[in-house]
Design brief:
The protein has 185 residues and is mainly beta. The chain is 14% helix and 39% strand. The chain is built from one helix and twelve strands, in the order H-E-E-E-E-E-E-E-E-E-E-E-E. It has one helix at 15-39; strands spanning 42-43, 47-49, 52-59, 64-69, 72-76, 83-91, 103-109, 117-121, 124-125, 132-137, 143-151, 171-180. Strands 1, 2, 3, 6, 9 and 10 form a six-stranded antiparallel β-sheet that branches. A four-stranded antiparallel β-sheet has the order 8-7-11-12, with no helix packed on it. Strands 4-5 form a two-stranded antiparallel ribbon. Pfam families: Iron_transport. Keywords: Signal. This is Fe2+ transport protein.
Length: 185
């Protein structure tokens, strides 16, 4: 059952806590906007889907740390990957990042002779600027693609008898005609 994203009452928190949650969401949204408008090669307007708002940004493939064992990290450069896809999923009511989601994406190229990429998993990525889901991948080349993002309902517990019955349905959004720029950073 989908909840009304405009709900702002709660039996678990007071008005000040709701105000702080909303401010946290507004700050996160400003970070998303900055990433899309100033940092990424491509990005677009966010779309509301049930209890979520979903957005994306795209950049060249980039290196990242991977934890190998306790306290031991390895810096991993892209191999054949030529695209880094970033996905933000926020709560439609307050704009805060929604953690622990299973996110998949598919890129369908406009070029008729190119193959569809995906669906592929888009795991959580820690980033110093904003939490998001992201991955490096290989696409057939630069150009126009349709990006479909699927989000499964999370299995985490939900607090609040008034608002806790949210994020219960899988959602899918499609961003049509996005321009992908390829390369490695």
């Amino acid at each position: 059952m989908s909840q009304n994203p405009a709900k702002t009452t709660s039996d678990e928190v007071d008005d000040r806590q709701l105000e702080l949650a909303k401010a946290e969401g507004e700050a996160y949204t400003r970070s998303i906007d900055y990433m899309i408008e100033k940092v990424a090669d491509a990005g677009g307007d966010m779309q509301t889907a049930e209890d979520y708002v979903v957005g994306y940004a795209q950049e060249e493939a980039e290196g990242m740390y991977r934890l190998e064992s306790d306290g031991e990290f390895e810096w991993v450069e892209p191999d054949e990957e030529n695209c880094h896809l970033e996905i933000a999923v926020t709560d439609a009511a307050d704009g805060r990042f929604v953690p622990e989601l299973d996110v998949r994406a598919t890129l369908d190229p406009a070029a008729e002779d190119a193959d569809t990429v995906g669906p592929f998993e888009v795991p959580f990525v820690w980033h110093p600027g904003l939490f998001h889901y992201g991955t490096n991948l290989e696409v057939p080349g630069e150009g126009e693609y349709d990006l479909t993002i699927e989000v499964d309902p999370p299995t985490f517990m939900r607090h609040d008898e008034e608002n806790g019955d949210r994020y219960g349905e899988p959602v899918e959004v499609t961003f049509e005609g996005i321009e992908i720029e390829t390369g490695q950073d």
